[in-house]
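Need a sequence for this fold. Nothing fancy.
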């Protein structure tokens, strides 16, 4: 299995875990919130932040377009809501500049082919394909045509569906992310052991995109070999929005990065040896033959 390169970072089994703070749509269409979340991720030590990009006219099913809902912008249709949370090119230029100034990479989950074309103008280091899009074969082909590494989430998907997606994308510069697409996910749903199955079946780097509320499973995923960990982030879990409850607040994100790096340090080498610092204890505590 070979590592792939995302921007300036190597991603693979012998490399430090690549940690992504998913901003997603937790910015609620507010560029200032997005900038604050970028700063939170950079300060915590994340390698990248991720956004979600959709073309609402292509991504919102006809049956949902006119459904009304309460939002921060009033009682509006679902289609109007989707339009409110999409950033335009000017906003993404601000995001791009802000990430450069804070020395953190950014990329996006593109939910349709026009969104891939839109994001291409910013020369992002990789693309994410969301679990919901894993069976969208034209989107898989269009994303691969961008010739950048791809992170593919595998939530709500059968192994046969993943087989087909990998067949289309190919294994070059591919990272599979084990995911459970419930928000928030329960611990008895997480099934982290699937990561080993994906790694063995496809021989590509495997990571974990978590939607649980705590930190333990995301840290355990690193101990189990996750090359990438992605978690939603928010300024405050009580903010309006469907993903906020399954997101990490700034203090939680900082603890996650601390614990991931401590686990990586603790894993060490498979070679059993007596440490230099143990030698005085050998002399003092062990009976000599």
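Here you go.
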């Amino acid at each position: 299995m070979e590592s792939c390169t995302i921007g300036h970072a190597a991603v693979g089994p012998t490399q430090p875990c690549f940690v992504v703070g998913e901003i997603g749509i937790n910015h609620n269409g507010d560029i200032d919130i997005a900038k604050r979340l970028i700063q939170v991720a950079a300060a915590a030590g994340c390698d990248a932040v991720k956004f979600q990009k959709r073309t609402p006219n292509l991504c919102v099913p006809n049956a949902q377009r006119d459904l009304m809902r309460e939002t921060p912008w009033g009682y509006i249709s679902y289609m109007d809501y989707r339009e409110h949370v999409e950033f335009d090119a000017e906003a993404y230029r601000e995001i791009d500049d802000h990430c450069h100034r804070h020395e953190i990479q950014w990329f996006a989950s593109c939910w349709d082919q026009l969104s891939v074309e839109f994001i291409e103008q910013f020369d992002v280091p990789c693309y994410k394909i969301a679990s919901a899009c894993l069976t969208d074969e034209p989107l898989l082909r269009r994303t691969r045509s961008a010739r950048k590494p791809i992170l593919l989430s595998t939530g709500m998907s059968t192994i046969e569906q993943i087989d087909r997606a990998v067949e289309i994308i190919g294994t070059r510069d591919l990272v599979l992310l084990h995911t459970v697409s419930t928000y928030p996910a329960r611990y008895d749903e997480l099934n982290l052991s699937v990561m080993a199955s994906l790694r063995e079946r496809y021989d590509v780097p495997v990571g974990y995109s978590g939607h649980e509320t705590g930190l333990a499973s995301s840290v355990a995923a690193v101990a189990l070999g996750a090359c990438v960990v992605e978690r939603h982030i928010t300024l405050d879990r009580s903010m309006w929005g469907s993903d906020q409850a399954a997101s990490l607040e700034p203090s939680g994100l900082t603890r996650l990065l601390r614990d991931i790096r401590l686990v990586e340090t603790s894993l060490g080498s498979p070679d059993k040896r007596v440490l230099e610092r143990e030698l005085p204890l050998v002399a003092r505590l062990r009976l000599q033959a």
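For context: The domain at 4-285 is CATH 3.20.20.70 (TIM Barrel).
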